[in-house]
Specification:
The protein is α/β, with parallel strands linked by helices. The chain contains ten helices and nine strands. It has one domain: P-loop containing nucleotide triphosphate hydrolases (Rossmann fold), CATH 3.40.50.300.
Length: 265
């Protein structure tokens, strides 16, 4: 995918020297990052490298212990209504009688509030969100009867019903069948024409050809830039822990580099 032409409008997300930690210690260290409108950004890296933690910081669910986070030029707590979010795991009672439509419509609660009834505008926005994710035909189905891929499309529709300027997706390609994975990958570039999208992913090979920027995160943001340059930059930044040719190395860095190189046209 060609580079996003929207950088001259200024970043929609800015992190400056951001550190974040849990009880066991620092998870993010000195993160500097700018993301612009209509950019599709993939965060890759090892388990425990901080991808989900970074998304939590952007959502305001985890306050950084140091540094500054700005979304649309505002502090996170003031910009929350501009963020749509799909977590990595959504737990629900599969027997609870709620339809795909009702789940997607939950995205409007932040706009309407719990006590105000939904109106025709809400219904139109929800229908459009389901249509954009290819899930409108599922609207009357109980959410517990849907496949993992079908549920994921409904959850993305719920996030789109927020009418976000920023869409955060935590491992959206995990636990879905190959057909659903392909459908989600095809969906994201079109959505990125209307908003900034930041997604974490282990599925490096399949997503890199579709993104504007890729970030390799392992506590620190080791690399952030164009995907076409990622393999060389990652290899140059990390010292490979195995004394062998990098093409044969099983470490996470060399594996990510090899997979992303194979995916490039």
């Amino acid at each position: 995918m060609s580079e996003s032409p929207y950088e001259r409008t200024g970043p929609v997300i800015t992190l400056q020297d951001v550190w974040a930690s849990y009880d066991q210690g620092d998870v993010l260290e000195s993160i500097d990052l700018e993301i612009y409108d209509r950019q599709l950004v993939a965060l890759i890296g090892p388990n425990g490298g901080g991808k989900t933690t970074l998304l939590r910081v952007l959502l305001g669910l985890l306050a950084p212990k140091r540094g500054e986070v700005r979304i649309l030029g505002q502090r996170v707590e003031r910009a929350r209504r501009a963020i749509g979010y799909v977590p990595q795991e959504i737990r629900f009672d599969s027997d609870f009688p709620v339809s795909a439509w009702e789940v997607a419509r939950m995205g409007r609660l932040g706009r309407r509030g719990l006590l105000r009834p939904f109106n025709s505008e809400d219904e139109t926005i929800v229908a459009d969100a389901l249509r954009r994710t290819g899930a409108l035909h599922l609207r009357r189905r109980p959410i517990g009867e849907l496949s993992g891929g079908e549920r994921q499309r409904v959850y993305i529709a719920r996030a789109l019903a927020v009418e976000p300027r920023v869409l955060l997706l935590d491992e959206p390609l995990s636990n879905v069948d190959p057909e659903a994975r392909s459908a989600i990958i095809e969906l994201l570039p079109g959505l990125s024409q209307q908003m900034a999208i930041i997604m974490s992913s282990h599925d490096v090979g399949s997503i890199l050809p579709h993104v504007h920027r890729v970030g390799y995160l392992n506590r620190r943001l080791v690399y952030y830039g164009a995907p076409q340059q990622a393999p060389e930059a990652i290899r140059g930044t990390f010292a490979c822990p195995v004394d062998m040719d990098s093409e044969q190395c099983p470490c996470a860095v060399c594996t990510a580099a090899a997979q992303s190189q194979e995916a490039l046209p």
